[in-house]
Amino acid sequence: MYDQHLRKRELIDLAIALVVLSIGFAISMAGRGIFGGINWGLVARYLPVTFFVLLFAFIGHELAHRQVARRLGYFAMFQADYTLLPLAIILPLFFGFVFAAPGAVVISPFRLYGRGDERRDVFYIAAAGPLANVAFALLGILFMELFKSGIFWFFAYINAWLAFFNMLPLPTLDGSKMAKSNFIMWLILIITAGWLVYILW
User: What superkingdom heads the lineage (predicted)?
Assistant: First the structure.
């Protein structure tokens, strides 16, 4: 019963965060905020696109963290941050840009089962999200070349940018944990993500 409650709560948190982020990105793409002008018709047109892209870029990122943590023996689940999540709509609505802090995968500090190297575990779990974004970015580039579609360019670019941003060595971001636990691998991965952002710019 308790596990069912947690699964339901996580699903609700993921769904709410996805919808809020999709709306925020659509508003940002359709204008410069209410003072600079927003084309609400474009917001409606962009919303399915941002939802589709973030379904992979955001949900894929968070589930990658969660699944790797669980495979390594930890309890892990996504929790939305309802204090910061509204900023994903408020900032694009008023100022035209997105600040996304929708929540994070919360991981127990102790293993529930199995044994392993804690330093290695930290790197694997932190790297899982950005690596999922890199994989989606490469898939987007492939589809972009095959179908010549701007939607797949946007898909590839958002995933590449999220991978690069999350790998910056700043506190709370994945890159901070990655750089401390395996500097060489972190450096290779952030250069790869940066290169993807550069070629898609």
Answer: Archaea
Of the candidates 10, 62, 118, 145, the residue annotated as catalytic is 62
Q: Tokens 């769904």 appear where?
A: 15
Q: pLDDT digit string (tens) for 18-65? A: 999 999 999 999 988 888 888 999 999 999 999 999 999 999 999 999
Residue 89 CA to residue 69 CA, distance in Å, equals: 30
Tokens representing 179? 């750089």
DSSP string, 62-102: HHHHHHHHHHTT--EEEEE-TTTTTHHHHHHHHHS------
Q: How confident is the model at residue 3 (pLDDT cuts 50, 70, 90)?
A: confident
Task: Indicate the pTM of the whole model.
Answer: 0.91
Strand partners, 79: 104
Question: In the prediction, which pLDDT does 71 show?
Answer: 93
- Cα distances from 69 to residues 78, 120, 131, 145, 191, in angstroms, run 12, 11, 14, 34, 25
Reply yes or no on whether 10 is catalytic: no
- The CA distance from 130 to 196, in Å, is 12
Task: Name, in order, each residue with C-beta under 8 angstroms of 137's C-beta and a sequence gap of 6 or more.
Answer: 156, 157, 159, 160, 163, 193, 196, 200
Mean of pLDDT values over 115-132: 91
